[in-house]
Amino acid sequence: MNAGTPILTAAQMRSAEQALFDAGVDDYGLMEQAGAAAAAIIWRAGGLRDTLVLCGPGNNGGDGFVIARLLRTRGVAVRVAVLGESGTSSSRRARAGWDGPVEQLATAAPATQLVDALFGTGLSRGLDPAVAARLCDLSASASHSYAIDLPSGVDSDSGALLSAVPHFSICIALGALKPAHLLYPAAGHVRRLICADIGIPASDLAHQLMPPRLAAPGPDDHKYRRGLVAVVGGTMAGAGILAAQAAARSGAGMVRRLAADGLRHGADAIVTQDAQTVDALHDSLDDARLAAVLVGPGLGRDATARARLEAVLRHGHPLVLDADALTLIDVEQIPDGAILTPHEGEFTRLFSDLPGSKIDRARSAAERSGAIVIYKGADSVIAAPDGRVAVASGSSHWLSTAGTGDVLAGLVAGRLAVTRDAFRAAGEAVWLHGDAARRAGAAFIADDLLAALPAAIAARL
Ligand SMILES: NC(=O)C1=CN([C@@H]2O[C@H](COP(=O)(O)OP(=O)(O)OC[C@H]3O[C@@H](n4cnc5c(N)ncnc54)[C@H](O)[C@@H]3O)[C@@H](O)[C@H]2O)[C@@H](O)CC1
Ligand SMILES: Nc1ncnc2c1ncn2[C@@H]1O[C@H](COP(=O)(O)OP(=O)(O)O)[C@@H](O)[C@H]1O
Ligand SMILES: [K+]
């Protein structure tokens, strides 16, 4: 998978910074660099609009003083308001570099632009209610607002809101993304996210999901080489048909629907095999060419569904487990290397006791089950048992409609058949699903995503 911008926890960020300092990088120099990068972004977005910079007591506040000084040198009418005294050596030096007046946060008048440099990764508890209210008021009076590194009041590692947090036009992440930039609810408080490079070395474990690079079929390809997918049907035919159609439009060579419902078709290109009995299902699965099997959408939850799931597990094909399969299965039964696509409810049932952020929980679930986990939602997190994580951002909230999960599951199975690489397939499928939703616009239904898939794929070739 194409590695995107790294995501670091506050502790990882501190050790990455410390590694730079140990290598001889000057502590204050890094703050100057961060402040300069942020000031350049604010200047490009806001020009000469009058600006109020709020500076907190730590290094986030230090960044604020650097930003204020640099914007003023460009001719911007800048005022600074502080919350407390600067408590770190770099922030004191940054404050000493600001020779304009310093107002108090409690009494400062609003401005057209607001820069929030109160707290970043060092926030340890919610803002005092009066401070949070003041931040919200000043933000509401501004037409443009910028959060430096993070909106003050969000928990950097989990994305939780620790106090009232305004909505920002732009958040300028410094050096790397933090979980709160991508995880809800914090992610919903930022309209645009920009990550400024300040020379922090990239971690290789957690990244923002990036657009994939896909390959078109070559002259030697044929339908089996491109990947044969089986979608196991159950009591609710529609879900399996949706999934099969998504798999068929994923770039895979061939899709078979192993139907429990007679021979209803979704698209003529999909081969529907009659697999109403468990024996018939076994026969259909007895094919070494199967590159991916999807089970779960519309499977049902009764004894027959359980028997069908067990039949699938016995064959040992590369597996995608979704929906009812996630409700029926126990963690110990999940084969290594399978892909799981739980939404919040399914995840909680399977992995109820896992602590930490959504990223932490997805990573622990992958480790515990040996599977690739796509923990779905507005902030889908993809985790592998070896610790790799990719977080999808900016997906259309119109996806919260019935059947879109079936489409995703079919896409995952299709990309698995094409790539034979579960983590990569999961990332590609989540990206294509999100892009198809963007293309489908508003008020779409799951079926509309299918029509948008070929264009989403074409855009990544
Ligand atoms: N290490 C460095 O030199 C660099 C740090 N950078 C900036 O530094 C930030 C992290 O700086 P810090 O670690 O100093 O942390 P912050 O500036 O985020 O704030 C920490 C300070 O606020 C206090 N505090 C925490 N929660 C509070 C609350 N609810 N109410 C009142 N006080 C509270 C803490 O006791 C501490 O004094 C990053 O987000 C980034 O903006 C960047 O300048 C890059 C370079
Ligand atoms: N509010 C939201 N914003 C963005 N994406 C969402 C939102 N809600 C759900 N999704 C996405 O839509 C899909 C829904 O899947 P799922 O919950 O399994 O629905 P269903 O079972 O009806 O198909 C998932 O890919 C999920 O990530
Ligand atoms: K901030």
UniProtKB/TrEMBL annotation:
PROSITE patterns: YJEF_C_1, YJEF_C_2, YJEF_C_3, YJEF_N. HAMAP family: NADHX_dehydratase (MF_01965), NADHX_epimerase (MF_01966). Bifunctional enzyme that catalyzes the epimerization of the S- and R-forms of NAD(P)HX and the dehydration of the S-form of NAD(P)HX at the expense of ADP, which is converted to AMP. This allows the repair of both epimers of NAD(P)HX, a damaged form of NAD(P)H that is a result of enzymatic or heat-dependent hydration. Catalyzes the dehydration of the S-form of NAD(P)HX at the expense of ADP, which is converted to AMP. Together with NAD(P)HX epimerase, which catalyzes the epimerization of the S- and R-forms, the enzyme allows the repair of both epimers of NAD(P)HX, a damaged form of NAD(P)H that is a result of enzymatic or heat-dependent hydration. This is Bifunctional NAD(P)H-hydrate repair enzyme. AMP binds at K376, G377, A378, D379, S380, G405. Its EC number is 4.2.1.136, 5.1.99.6. Residues 206-460 form the YjeF C-terminal domain. Its cofactor is K(+); Mg(2+). The keyword ATP-binding applies. Keywords: ATP-binding, Isomerase, Lyase, Metal-binding, Multifunctional enzyme, NAD, NADP, Nucleotide-binding, Potassium. It catalyses: (6S)-NADHX + ADP = AMP + phosphate + NADH + H(+); (6R)-NADPHX = (6S)-NADPHX; (6S)-NADPHX + ADP = AMP + phosphate + NADPH + H(+); (6R)-NADHX = (6S)-NADHX. It comes from the Bacteria. One of its GO terms (molecular function) is NAD(P)HX epimerase activity. The gene is nnrD. Binds 1 potassium ion per subunit.
